[in-house]
From TrEMBL:
This is Clu domain-containing protein. It comes from the Eukaryota. InterPro entries: CLU-central, CLU_dom, CLU_N, CLU_prot, GSKIP_dom_sf, TPR-like_helical_dom_sf, TPR_rpt. Residues 732-788 form a coiled coil. GO terms for molecular function: mRNA binding. Residues 146-182, 278-292 have a biased composition (Basic and acidic residues). Residues 1281-1293 have a biased composition (Basic residues). GO terms for biological process: intracellular distribution of mitochondria. The keyword Coiled coil applies. Residues 357-614 form the Clu domain. Residues 143-182, 276-299, 1233-1293 are annotated as: Disordered. It comes from Maudiozyma saulgeensis.
Amino acid sequence: MSSTEANINIKVNIKLPNVHAHHGKKAPTQEKLSLQFNKDSKVQTVLDVLAVAKQTKFLTNIQLKHNDIVLNDEQVLAELTSEKAVEKDIPVDISVELKPYSYRESLRHSVIVRDLIGFSSETEDSLSEFAISTGSKYESLNLSEIRQKDPEAEKKRKEEEEAAKKQETEKGEETEKKGHFLDVTDEEKEATAKMVREIFKSQKESSLKQFFTTSSALITPCVRSLNLSQYNPVPALYKTKGHLLYLQVVTLEGESLHITATPAGFYVNKSSNSKFDPSLKTKTDEDSDNKSHGRKHEPHQVETTFYSLFDLLAAHSKNFTSHIEKLDSKLATMENASYVKPQTAYLHKPWLISNVPSNSGDYSKLQQDYVNNIVNLERNFNDEFQAIKDLPTDAIASRIESERLLAKLIHEFSGVAASGAMLIVQNSMVAMNPDADESEQIFLKDNIFYSYVTDVIGTYSDKGGDDAARAASNQDLLTISILNRINLKDVRYLLTTIVDFGGKRLLAQTPVPGLLGTMGSEVVKDEASGEEILKDLENDIVVSYGYDETSKQVVKDETFDKILGDEFSKVFHLKKENENDVWFSSQSKGIVGFDKRHYILDLASTYPVDINFIRENYENVDAESRYPHRQTLLRPELVEKWWNQKVEDEKDLTMEDAWKEGKFTYNPDAYQIDGIEDKTIDEISDYLNNDVITGVINDFAEGNVTAPYTGSHLVDTLHRNGINTRYLGKIIKVAQAKLDEQEKKHDDRLEEIKVSNAEHEAWEAAYLEKIQKMIKERQDKINKYVQEGKDVPKELSEGLKLDDNEIRKATKSDPVIVGKDELLPVIGMAYIEIISRSLKHIFRFYAKELPVAAISSMVAYFFNLLFGSTYNTSPDAENIDEFYAVSSYAFSSVTRDILIKSIIKEAKLRFRADLSLETLEKYISYKNLMIKEISTKFGIQLINKNYFFSKDEFETYKQSQDKKIRSKITEPVATFSKDDMVIIPIVKSSNYNSILSEEFWGQGTALVAEDKKEDGLTLMAQSIAILEDVKGVVHSDVAEKYLSMATIYSRLGLVSEAIAFCRKACVIYERTNGIDSFELLRALNNLALLELSNESPLNAASIYKRIIEISTIFELNEFHHPITASIFNNLEQVALGTSNMKLTVEVLTNLAEIIVNLDGKDNVAYGFTESRLGNLCASTKEYNAALEHIVHAENVFTKELGSNDHFTVSAKQWINGLTNLLNDLRQQKILKQDQDAADNSPVIPHSKKSHGKKQPAANPKLAEKSVDELLDFIEGDDHKKPSKNQKKKNGKK
């Protein structure tokens, strides 16, 4: 179906019921809504819109009617009208009808109202019971509104720039980039300068605690509490009177309202905390009650049943209404992505939690499970999942609905699975086999099957046991994520989630229908005893394709074989060696479930093994040095990259034909089963080692890929290129080799320049001597003519005739750059990742035997050993209580030396990295970054407080406090305590992508590339709209699309629109990835550049301050990361654009200091910075400072570029010019002093020696002049006078 069909909409007029809303000025609800829907939308879509619309969101129990006929939720809107009516834009009339409440619907209504009036904070998600979500800092940037430029003025400015550029080109002059002055107010210039100077301070020192202090929740409850009353369940007497349930509300005024729910709605009853009377409370009762208690309350609307609980609360609480109004007005000024709840994603769980959430008393939390069971009923996730996949998807609207339901279900399953897994690790769920060892226990709850990820049945006994099983679970989940991206109707698979907590891993899956059930039982006679016994009938839901664990054989089924051979095998590029083989790995299984659907499971080995890595690091390697397991598969990204490369290399072969024909395939059993080999797998493994890894390092070195901000950023880049983390050690080696190669080239080039400089000096001396000789000869001739009284010939009074071919012109050469900014961050972050991942494995090893309560004690102890050893050289593990004596656990006997050796061993085993003690200590010293990476990987949240890593730090902190509290401060025993942290689960769920959204995006980008911008951008906007519909606004995939849109709009010159997209991306990334995530850093950097190009320097500076704070906190300068230098280069443009020369000098001075701290003064970057400083100082008439900076620049250029390079020559000219200028100024000063003295004293002849008229003898000797000076002397000043543009070019480097 073409994308054009998505634009055929139907106008729908929705008549609303006569329900009075007590909101604001108590205006009646709007009677009619007019909305647009796609013609293929279902009635359910209309209901979904009404559920969020301001006028109807509190109406939770409604049905829709058309022509007095109740509409079915599954009806399509196109069925309610005709094609002619659609063409004429005739609307469809629908009315909303209220339905009487049932017990379930009244309970559901109270839950929805409770969420809508602030009990559902923007920081809550389905993991909030176990972990604390990130707070917000985006609003604290205080960005001004996006500046809208006048298109005509902007067009005129660009035309003028192009015309000037063209004119200069025609004249043969070299065009230079001119400074652009920003059109901003004086107030903004002043604020910008202040912000830039704050950046200087942040670059020196930034507070971790202050940075992670985020704002409190935006959304707060509009009543104190709302929960089920103590008088539930409804007594039998009142059930017959229609009472459904009882609620109790405490308003912001402190008044307690007892509420009765009936089919007609809700009313305030006469009950109190000590008396039960669910009858309607009248005005007389109200007055009597107030009088007896001596209370004065504003008159309420009583003797009324409200259909909506919201209206009842608005009628009885003025503060409720005002709070709602304030909340609405506050949220109206904010981007909706900053407060809406995520639909298919978890909020980020930061490693440092700003505030420990207050746990105010709320009975509804305790009632939540009961309410959910009533409202949602028992769920069978597999039935729902498979039913959604069976939905028709011929129309675009139905495809969107199917994708939305799938994405929502996958996420909901993940949340429920995580909750179940936490019950298991907390010993709160009974196993199906309670007598088995813990690692062998299995569980079933809410139709979800749980098991520990261990090699229980010995499947991986020859491949590494538990380590191999753990790796296989990740690979299985990765394969399921690939299946989520394609729409295979006949092939079914299981919903899967992995939960890691405290060293243990649990796998949660939906079971194959019928697999865990029994087929009944029969009475049989026991042959031995002769007694009758009950025997279970054999289950006929068995493996019918693939590996059967019961028979230990690979079985075959024709139907399964055909289903997998059609599309599944092509998606994964699989092949069979012969007809008796199965299409996937022989370790995988195919089962026909009780629902007759064909399920595939155990898909870990679908991708090929990394045979080169196995040969080098597993096979024929001694046990101590061997990689922990053999389940080392190649990543799907690599296989796709290899496959695409193969197709591109094949002449006359398109991607589509290659896919249909099943070209370039591999056997997944190769090197997994004895005797089976496949040269294709060898080729893919070679491709990884020889091409991909080298290619990625080259991309880093050439600046094609952003230098990693963190270890996680590096891993993300590697994974996108199909490189496994086990290659981190090799990444370091290849990057270091590339760096060494560049340094050697640089050293060789310096030697060449040294020789060239010596040769140039020799030429210059010889040429000077030649010119001096020519001058002397000419002077002799002139003298002779003068002595003879003859006229001097004209040719002797003109300039010397020099051969241009003999004069060496300044050259232009590119310096040999050593990519430290690009490669050192790669090496450094690879070490950070290796060490943090090694520690994760060590933590797991010691934690898996621990009870939940003891894990925090272990983490605090290990953190003290690693990071707090200066504060306390021999910390002790903290006891939990009398039941959990830490001395009985292995971790308590670990010393720092043992821990350090364990890290070095793990680094070698798992990442093949040689980690010296010196290197390890170096990277451990980057405490903030290292603690962050460890915490993120193991699942740790630290309380945001002052942590002291030395006694001096504690004393400094203590002395900084007020005298009154200083004496009350207790010195901590160690840096970390078990009470400083929360151990949280790490939840891994399969990813789901919107196929339809990707199709629209692909079509849009293709049209933009063909210069059909308007159509292309429309399709891309529709792609994002679909993605938001499917996944919700708060999702990192949505943020990624907004960031891409910002880039595209920026390239098209639509900067204001680009900024809007980029800001939204930042808001989403902050909530889904964290305020210190590399995704947010990347987005913020892009946003700052856009704000600067949009002439909003204050916005750009505010954003740069945030980035600098993160960079300083994590010491990115120590990793030679280019972000700080890049920002200061951009701040130079900010300062220049605001015409603040003094600020520009300060920026460049700080930049020069940064460069010197990293690389010293012998580098081109320092030379150019000094040159720019010299230029600026000269423009502000600080000539001495200018000369000093230019001399530094000239020294660098001479060494790095050569004596005859145009930058060096230009610097020399500046030095000569500034020296002469300073001499002139000095002489002028002396003359002025003489004149002042003469005016104020008797005339006394002045000594000629000191201040007399300049004598010729005072001029420099000709032999001491340079070639350029001699040319000036011979040919006159006019000969060397540069044009205006040349002056600018020579001055600005």
